[in-house]
Amino acid sequence: MEGLKNPNGRFDDRQDLLSRIEKYERKVIPSYEGKVHELTHKLRNRPSICTSVSCIDVSKRIGDFEKDSKMNPELDKIRSELKRAEEVIREKDNEIEAKNKELREMTNMIQKMAATFNTEMSKQEILIRELNDEVVDLRGQIRVAIRVRDYEKDGSNFEITSDNEVKFQQNGQSNVFEFENVFKPTTNQPQVFNEIKELIMCALHGKNVSLIAFGPTSSGKTYTMRGDEENEGVIPRAINFMLEHSRHDLATIGWQYSFVASFIEVYNDEVFDLLDEKKKIKITGEAVTSNKIPIKGMRDVNHLLQLADAQRSVASTACNLHSSRSHAIFQIYIDGVNKSGETIKCSLKLVDLAGSERAKESGAQGEQFKELTKINQSLSTLKKCIRAQKNKDTHVPYRDSKLTILLRDSLGAGSSKTMFIAHVNPNDVCETDRTLKFTSDLRSTRIGKATVQTGQ
């Protein structure tokens, strides 16, 4: 059929075919049908041949008849092509409908599988929460790890005997101290975080969590918590872990989270906001009003940490050329809501305590001596609070120090999962002895089981 097909003998597409068929139905076919009708009419009304009809008229009529007769095969051909085209269109429509039906069935199957998957994921997430809590609780509500700075091993009275024990000799007596983890001098930053991330996970499950680094000056506390440009510490790793886990694993089961952070320091027993030009903060009762910055990505975290680093109080002493002279408390406030209606509202505290020093060794004088005194006093109060909890005393002296007021929820007055990371430099025998003895008190202290915080 001329004009109905492209040069290759095929229709371009269904719309092209329909357009061409419409053209022939509108113009060509009516023309042929009109001529057929006219010829039929002439034949029916044809007069009998008589002497009044000339031979010329008869010849003309016969010629017209023969001409119109030749058109009939072409018209039949067009009709046949149209019929075949209609059959092709019906076949294509049937194929399309079959494909659409198959697609609908596959879509329904995928939706059912997704619903089943989400249900199973929710069950698994609840189970993981319970197992994670059991693991943490079995290790004691106050967990204690120790990180050992590199030291001269020859002739040392300090020895790492396993992944969970160290042995220390003092005054001819050898004592073994147990820990959740012993981080050796060769342990790197990722390995340290890998051992504590289950505790960070508890915060995403709605529990208040505190991670506290303590130990003498120059033992590596700030390095563990903050890290450096090449080796990120616990603070940036913890935030990145929560952002990634909340946006992927927990998001698939209907959770949405928001995070804001504050960063304060306790310097000379006064509280200052490191995110608000180091403004002094008043503590009203147990409430602290500080500047809070939303965290949506690691760029926000890096900006926040740089801002705090520029404000934190540091000084050079005989024990440490870059000694932190304040206790730094980085706190992340977590709000979570699930599509089921479940909510959580809790916080994660990451604390870098100032290092204890002895005045004689540090060479502190004047303002530095005052700083040293305040640091040691606040750390002494912290130890008193731990021992009071251990002994189940009716009174715990939280209010004797700004530091312990701020940490009271982490030390037994509230609901929290708490972990201390003790830091030691075995070359300093006296401070190592004090630190190890304090860890024994910590591991013997029960502060109660943490509960989910819903904010209601």
UniProtKB/TrEMBL annotation:
GO terms for biological process, alphabetical: chromosome segregation; microtubule-based movement
Listed GO MF terms: ATP binding; microtubule binding; microtubule motor activity
One cellular-component annotation, GO: microtubule cytoskeleton
InterPro entries registered for this protein in UniProt: Kinesin-like_fam, Kinesin_motor_dom, Kinesin_motor_dom_sf, P-loop_NTPase
Residues at which ATP binds: 215-222
Entry keyword annotation includes ATP-binding: yes
Coiled-coil annotated spans: 75-141
Residue ranges annotated for the Kinesin motor domain, each copy included: 141-445
Keyword Iron-sulfur set for record: no
Entry superkingdom: Eukaryota
Database matches in SUPFAM superfamilies: P-loop containing nucleoside triphosphate hydrolases
CDD domains cross-referenced by the UniProt entry: KISc
Main subcellular location of this protein, as a coarse class: cytoplasm
Keywords for the protein's UniProt record, in alphabetical order: ATP-binding, Coiled coil, Cytoplasm, Cytoskeleton, Motor protein, Nucleotide-binding
Location of the protein in the cell: Cytoplasm, Cytoskeleton
Pfam families: Kinesin (PF00225)
Family: Belongs to the TRAFAC class myosin-kinesin ATPase superfamily. Kinesin family.
PANTHER family in the record: KINESIN MOTOR DOMAIN-CONTAINING PROTEIN (PTHR47972:SF30), KINESIN-LIKE PROTEIN KLP-3 (PTHR47972)
Name under which the protein is recorded: Kinesin motor domain-containing protein
Organism: Caenorhabditis remanei (Caenorhabditis vulgaris)
